[in-house]
Amino acid sequence: MNKYFRVKIFDIKYDTDGEEIDLPQEILVWVREDCLDSSLDDDLLGDLISDETGFCHLGYKVESTDTTIESDTDQEFFI
């Protein structure tokens, strides 16, 4: 079993070319405990934001929470 922590990606600044679009300002992700530092790099999380919303971003903030789960999956992170 692997332990996962809930991580909040928030204050996401989207690149919408000035178009008014209702996009999430927060995305919650489960990150495996041993990947907390390595998985929180800009490329992985930036790709996740783009994959989930269909839009590029101009920046965001990340915050770990105290919420945990245990799972037998081996993924580094999942939504």
Characteristics of this structure?
79 residues, alpha+beta, four-stranded antiparallel sheet, 15% helix
Give the low-pLDDT segments: none
User: Sheet bearing the most strands, described?
Assistant: 4 strands, antiparallel
Write down the overall geometry. Answer: elongated
Specify the oligomeric state.
single chain
Cα distance, first to last residue?
18 Å
Strand composition percent: over 45%
Radius of gyration: 13 Å
Numbering strands along the chain, what is their spatial order in the largest sheet?
3-1-2-4
Q: Could you say which structural class the secondary elements and strand pairing correspond to?
A: alpha+beta
The total beta strand count reads 4
| Overall pLDDT confidence | 88
Order of helices and strands: EEHEE
Summed up, the helix count is 1
Q: What proportion of the residues is helical, as a percent range?
A: 10-25%
What would you say this structure looks like, in words?
By secondary structure, this protein is α+β, with helices and mostly antiparallel strands. The protein contains one helix and four strands, in the order ββαββ. The protein has one helix at 42-53; strands spanning 2-14, 26-32, 57-71, 77-78. The chain has a four-stranded antiparallel β-sheet. The longest helix has 12 residues, at 42-53. The model has no long low-confidence stretch (mean pLDDT 88).
